[in-house]
Design brief:
Radius of gyration: 11 Å
CATH architecture: Roll
Largest sheet: 5 strands, antiparallel
Number of helices: 1
Strand content: 35-45%
Structural class: mainly beta
CATH class: Mainly Beta
Helix content: 10-25%
Distance between the termini: 27 Å
Strand order of the largest sheet: 4-3-2-1-5
Number of strands: 5
Order of helices and strands: EEEEEH
Shape: globular
Number of domains: 1
Length: about 80
């Protein structure tokens, strides 16, 4: 599976280990992730792609708010 904008991922390292996020941007070896609570869509966290794990789910992040994102990620167990 390929890392794309809108992919739901789980952090595997760092202080946010175990939390679920959505990918907002993809670079060469890094991606930007947001969860709508601690990391808003306006200021996502940059994370090394080796430190995240794909879940296989996608979220359409076009015209989404932080509150809607939190609600969607709650189904995965994140952003509580």
């Amino acid at each position: 599976m390929e890392l794309k904008i809108g992919s739901v991922v789980r952090a595997m390292a760092g202080r946010d280990k175990g939390s679920f996020f959505v990918v907002t941007a993809v670079e060469k070896s890094r991606c930007s992730i947001a969860d709508g609570k601690s990391r808003k869509l306006a200021s996502p966290k940059r994370k090394n792609i080796r430190h995240i794990s794909l879940t296989g789910s996608m979220i359409d992040i076009k015209d989404i708010t932080d509150k809607k994102l939190r609600t969607m990620l709650r189904a995965f167990g994140g952003a509580e």
